[in-house]
UniProtKB/TrEMBL annotation:
Protein residues bound to substrate: R305, R341, Y345, E373, Y402
Subunit composition and interactions: Homodimer.
Catalytic activity as recorded in UniProt: meso-2,6-diaminopimelate + H(+) = L-lysine + CO2
Highest classification ranks of the organism: Bacteria, Bacillati, Actinomycetota, Actinomycetes, Kitasatosporales
Keyword Amino-acid biosynthesis annotated: yes
Binding site for pyridoxal 5'-phosphate: G260, E302, P303, G304, R305, Y402
Residue ranges that the Swiss-Prot or TrEMBL entry lists as coiled coil: none
Listed name of the protein: Diaminopimelate decarboxylase
Known pathway: Amino-acid biosynthesis; L-lysine biosynthesis via DAP pathway; L-lysine from DL-2,6-diaminopimelate: step 1/1
EC number: 4.1.1.20
Matching HAMAP family: LysA
Domain Orn/DAP/Arg decarboxylase 2 N-terminal: 56-308
Sites of N6-(pyridoxal phosphate)lysine modification: K79
Amino acid sequence: MSLPLTACAPPHPYAGTPLWPASTQPLRTGDLAVGGVSLAELADRFGTPSYVIDEGEVRERARAWRTALPDADIAYAGKAFLSRAMIRWVEEEGLSLDVCSAGELELAALSGFPAERIVLHGNAKSPADLRDALRLGVGRIVIDSTGEIASLAAQMPPGARQRVLLRVVPGIAAGAHSAVRTGVEGQKFGLPIAGGEAEDAVARILGQPRLELVGLHCHLGSQIAGLGPYVTAVRKLVALLAELRDRHGVTFPELDLGGGFAIAYREGDPVLDPALYATRVTGELALQCARFGLPVPRLTVEPGRWIAGPAGVALYRVLAVKSTGGRTFVAVDGGMSDNPRPALYGVRYTVRLVGRASTAPARSATVVGRHCEAGDVLAEDVPLPGDIRPGDVLAVPAAGAYQVSMASAYNLVGRPPVVAVSEGRARLLVRRETLEDLRSRDVGE
Ligand SMILES: Cc1ncc(COP(=O)(O)O)c(C=O)c1O
Ligand SMILES: N[C@@H](CCCC[NH3+])C(=O)O
């Protein structure tokens, strides 16, 4: 068995299947450098598990969307990964920001992100979410249910008017796992077009003078590699826009098609190319609007994973190696507490030894976490050097999205730090959660 040769791919044009940041370079020691910094050195300096995020890769990926869709609003979906630095990078790259809680909103405000460029989402916005959104003056609030319409209008300060979008369900099944398919009826988000619920909500919003309906929103799901679902969404949403114009005499300046753009976790995984998306989706939008005699609304897209995911690398140290039941298990010092995705969606990752060169023949191994569940598996039957041993450092690419942001303190293992790398320098963005942090929350007896 041979080791994967993909670790040191040349700079990529955001097509194909890039697994590692474009800055990744092999070092003679068997190590890899990302953003000009050795991963093994980062593991020693910041401990493990640790998350490394390549600032240049984030910026390039933000620019790839800006370049593909120069006239559109690109709103980074902060749920993928958020920190003050990340907020600053996307702000400097000219993106808007999609948030879905008072926590994400407060961090954006603290970082000085322009409130006007913030979009607030949520199927169950708390009073604190809405209070903060109105106090800070967010640009748009996405209404997700009928009950929210009157309650939001009632909370508006006298004389104020809030721009809102309505999240609709087009009835399109897309996405890598049933838990993340949000374009279909029968799940909790949005209001279905079929059956007239979306149209009824539009009529109600139009009846609220304190709400300004600027357009429709839909988000189909996650890890969508094909363009077909987005093209179908355009057709369905523009048909609804035509119906709304005919029945209510209104046209809207915006259309938000959400995110969900696929990245590669393993060699050969299909990825979504922003340039192809732009051509197909804007082409279809122009065509459909012309067909119905509608003005072409300004497009918003909400990439999260596509921007943050491939910019991140997770570092773990091997704690134990065990051969049992005909399999070799390599257990690392993190797992489902810093990355619940394998347990939630059955996702499997790519893993590579860094920090030393090994000439041992590769053997198949299953890389598992340290948590108290047999489902705590990061990678299954992957080739790793046969002499892998405790103390070795393993690196996992495509780790920048929905890992740190979904991390928990399961088994009271503290959440990992996040370290930014750029031009040969590393700096801590988010510190490790210490045992003292965890103990200090326990205030009763
Ligand atoms: C409303 C909305 N927009 C954007 C996103 C970002 O999705 P992704 O990170 O898959 O691009 C999500 C999460 O799936 C979402 O719920
Ligand atoms: N958290 C998911 C996707 C859902 C994103 C939020 N709508 C993932 O890790 O893939």
